[in-house]
């Protein structure tokens, strides 16, 4: 930026030196003001969640000050115990961990075969996976999926939700294909020559080498599962004890005493945001690289 | 021969989990929809074949077409705010200013947060009576009266603001990736030739960014047409249907929204609506692709 702006000078010199602040200083100030305001607006709802989670119910009811008069950490205890957030957190964690592990395994196995071997119907398979990412018919698919889970007796557990989350593994599949391409084929061949079978080679030699790829793909699968709302909502409508954080939190909004519980809602929101936020702070680079990578091609 | 069968068996073993899951939970639901859109089916009892009746009904369904119109307003508003804002942030952050990494981390943060959770938060802070948005705006003396953010006049604007909040960081990052792949020496030689910053932006940045931008905008269009989760939680499509978008309307035909409003299930008609929404989104995407073909060959 500095270099570019310096070179700009010859054209605009006459005007800018006449004023006490040069055009360049004003420009930089405007730019920083814009960046700062955008950052504040981005953080505002999160800060309000945090501050709201520490207010009393009465403080939330009347609105008023930005900060709580006296931080009410008891809100978290209340949300955790009375408002059932311990249950919701466990359900969310269970669904997210299982769905992430399943997605990675299913997608990695398929991606390995597709990257390393030729077989009849390969392009049909790849085309189908690609189109699964783009067809969007909305909530209508939830109904046949639900009926299927009822037929399999899986509608009274969270396994139905988990299986549906795993079935949407096409983006993970394409992400992992990229990582497989980076692992030299000679490695597979060397392992095979040493007498290791196909399955053994995959699990003992290739998967360990795929760890970085599994890590970032897993991060995205986990984020998707953890943040999912409509799917667990529909599946747990008659099973409140199976609700995940997103569903339990949203239901507080519909409850008869919703107005009295805004502080608990905010505490619950904080609880459900926290794990992703920690993951984001730790793995910031991975999130950013993979998102950016999706358009670089 | 034995060897070949063994290979095929291994392939099948490794692919079958993916194929079974995709077939049962990805493709079967689509076929189910394609079948039941020709039936009168409430979800119980015997489905009754009615031919194209559901589509005749759809043509005359004022609520559906209103929701299509609202979808265009919602998606258009979101895109008009999100794309320029995210491009501007990307261009600024691409200039490697001090603190850029921290700012990028902050702007991208909304994309890791659950839409549902943050929508519940937004529902509370946009509340006209005790919400923090009005409190802050009044303290800053930007407004003198509380604004009814969730009322008929501003509800659409509110849900668009929430959508923009969640989307800017994502598209900023995609634009940034595109900007970083532009060779730096282009700028240097242009600078030597005496091109100023604005000129370099118009003559180098924009045309070089065009292929990436074409894809980013397509992703943005699809995402903005599909979004309904946050609207469902903030306004439920109200007040008086002002924020009802087509995917939310579809959802309401299939499942009850809040405990207070029992909606009659119409799976057959819902299938027809689902098919129609997919066709509308597909048509817009295709149209965009045709119109934006030139972006790929700008340089």
Automatic annotation (TrEMBL), chain A:
Membrane association type: Multi-pass membrane protein
Residue numbers spanned by region Disordered: 1-20
InterPro entries: MetI-like (IPR000515), MetI-like_sf (IPR035906)
Domain ABC transmembrane type-1: 89-283
UniProtKB keywords: Cell membrane, Membrane, Transmembrane, Transmembrane helix, Transport
Spans through the membrane: 29-50, 93-114, 126-146, 158-180, 201-223, 264-283
Subcellular location: Cell membrane
Gene3D superfamilies the record matches: MetI-like (1.10.3720.10)
Gene Ontology terms describing biological process: transmembrane transport
Gene Ontology CC entries for this record: plasma membrane
UniProt protein name: Sugar ABC transporter permease
UniProtKB/TrEMBL annotation, chain B:
InterPro entries per UniProt: MetI-like (IPR000515), MetI-like_sf (IPR035906), UgpAE/MalFG_permease (IPR050809)
Top-level taxon of the source organism: Bacteria
UniProt cross-references to Gene3D superfamilies, sorted A to Z: MetI-like
Topology with respect to the bilayer: Multi-pass membrane protein
Keyword Ribosomal protein: no
Keywords in alphabetical order: Cell membrane, Membrane, Transmembrane, Transmembrane helix, Transport
Localization in the cell: Cell membrane
Spans through the membrane: 12-31, 72-93, 105-126, 154-179, 200-223, 267-291
Designated name of the protein: Lactose ABC transporter permease
């Amino acid at each position: 930026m500095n270099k570019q702006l310096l070179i700009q000078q010859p054209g605009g010199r006459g005007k800018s030196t006449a004023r006490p602040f040069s055009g360049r200083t004003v420009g930089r100030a405007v730019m920083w003001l814009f960046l700062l305001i955008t950052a504040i607006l981005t953080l505002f709802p999160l800060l309000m969640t945090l501050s709201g989670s520490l207010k009393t119910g009465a403080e939330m009811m009347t609105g008023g000050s930005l900060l709580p008069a006296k931080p009410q950490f008891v809100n978290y205890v209340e949300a955790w115990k009375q408002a059932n957030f311990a249950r919701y957190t466990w359900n969310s964690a269970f669904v997210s961990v299982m769905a992430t592990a399943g997605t990675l395994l299913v997608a990695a196995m398929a991606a390995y075969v597709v990257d390393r071997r030729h077989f009849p119907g390969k392009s049909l398979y790849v085309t189908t996976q690609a189109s699964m990412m783009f067809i969007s018919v909305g909530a209508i698919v939830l109904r046949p999926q639900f009926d299927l889970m009822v037929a399999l007796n899986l509608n009274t557990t969270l396994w139905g939700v988990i299986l549906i989350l795993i079935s949407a593994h096409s983006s993970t599949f394409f992400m992992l294909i990229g990582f497989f391409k980076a692992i030299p084929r000679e490695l597979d061949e060397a392992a095979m020559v040493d007498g290791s079978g196909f399955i053994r080679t995959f699990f003992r030699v290739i998967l360990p080498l795929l760890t970085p790829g599994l890590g970032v793909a897993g991060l995205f699968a986990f984020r998707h599962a953890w943040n999912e709302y409509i799917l667990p909502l529909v599946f747990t409508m008659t099973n409140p004890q199976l609700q995940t954080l997103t569903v339990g939190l949203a239901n507080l909004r519909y409850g008869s005493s919703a107005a009295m519980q805004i502080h608990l809602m905010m505490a619950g929101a904080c609880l459900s945001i926290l794990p992703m936020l920690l993951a984001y702070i730790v793995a910031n680079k991975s999130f950013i690289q993979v998102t950016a990578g999706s358009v670089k091609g | 021969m034995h060897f070949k069968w063994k290979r095929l068996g291994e392939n099948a073993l490794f692919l079958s989990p993916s194929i079974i899951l995709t077939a049962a939970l990805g493709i079967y639901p689509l076929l189910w929809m394609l079948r039941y859109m020709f039936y009168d089916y409430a979800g119980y009892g015997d489905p009754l074949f009615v031919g194209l009746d559901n589509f005749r009904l759809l043509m005359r369904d004022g609520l559906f077409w209103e929701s299509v119109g609202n979808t265009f307003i919602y998606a258009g508003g979101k895109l008009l705010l999100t794309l320029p804002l995210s491009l501007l942030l990307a261009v600024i952050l691409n200039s490697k200013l001090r603190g850029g990494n921290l700012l990028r981390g902050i702007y991208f943060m909304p994309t890791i947060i659950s839409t549902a959770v943050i929508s519940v938060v937004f529902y509370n802070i946009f509340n006209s009576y005790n919400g923090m948005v009005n409190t802050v705006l009044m303290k800053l003396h930007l407004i003198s009266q509380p604004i009814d953010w969730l009322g008929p006049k501003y509800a659409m604007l509110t849900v668009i603001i929430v959508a923009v909040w969640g989307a800017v960081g994502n598209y900023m990052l995609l634009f940034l990736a595109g900007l970083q792949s532009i060779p730096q020496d282009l700028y240097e030689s242009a600078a030597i030739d005496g091109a100023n910053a604005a000129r370099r932006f118009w003559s180098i940045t924009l045309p070089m960014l065009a292929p990436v931008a074409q894809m980013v905008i397509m992703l943005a269009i699809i995402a903005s047409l599909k979004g309904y989760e946050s609207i469902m939680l903030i306004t439920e499509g109200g007040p008086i249907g002002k924020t009802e978008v087509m995917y939310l309307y579809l959802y309401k035909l299939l499942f009850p929204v809040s405990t207070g409003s029992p909606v009659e299930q119409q799976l057959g008609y819902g299938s027809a609506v689902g098919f129609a929404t997919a066709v509308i989104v597909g048509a817009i995407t295709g149209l965009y692709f045709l119109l934006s073909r030139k972006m790929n060959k700008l340089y």
